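Hey, I'm writing a tutorial for new members on how sequence and structure tokens pair up, and I'd like a real worked example in the thread rather than a made-up one. If someone can provide the structure for the chain below, I'll link this post from the tutorial.
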Amino acid sequence: MALPNDPSINERHKARMVRKKDVVDVKIEQAQRDQGVVVIVTGNGKGKSSSAFGMVARSLGHGLKVGVVQFIKGAIPTGEEQFFRRFPDEVRFRIAGDGYTWVTQDREKDVASAEAGWATALELLRDPGIGLVVLDELNIVLKSHYLDVATVIAGIAGRPPMQHVVITGRGAPPELVAAADTVSDVGLVKHSFAQGIRAQKGVEL
């Protein structure tokens, strides 16, 4: 129910917004530098890859070219792969996995797939024509020690100055978190899977 249109309430609201604008304006004034940023989206909650592919859409809207490497995933076609492959001139999309590790049960094969995916990632990270690189589920690869964290951090650090990188997956290593510019930890409140609902197209897939 809406609050009464009380002039005193409206005046107090305006005063708060004036004070808030002053604070925000100072922060905006202090943030005038442009550079490529490293964004990590980690945590046990749902929405990590969804966030990354939202940034893909944003980047394309601004005319940037995008590179995507999906680690781990690969056994089941995802909606994001099927959609963004429609734009081969704008999005370079590479699958570098054979399915979730508890399904593959083959560490040697998973390591080989991760290494091949990282080789593709390095190509993207060295290409100044790519404005955004998404390394989907890379955190899982690093947590499982399929790739060396220091090697990955060095590869990301050597990218073109204005290139952005988004890294997803649970369990982001502390070293990678320290090297990132923006880190979001997506918490879990509840999930439909725990209620016996299978992964749904357009939501999880």
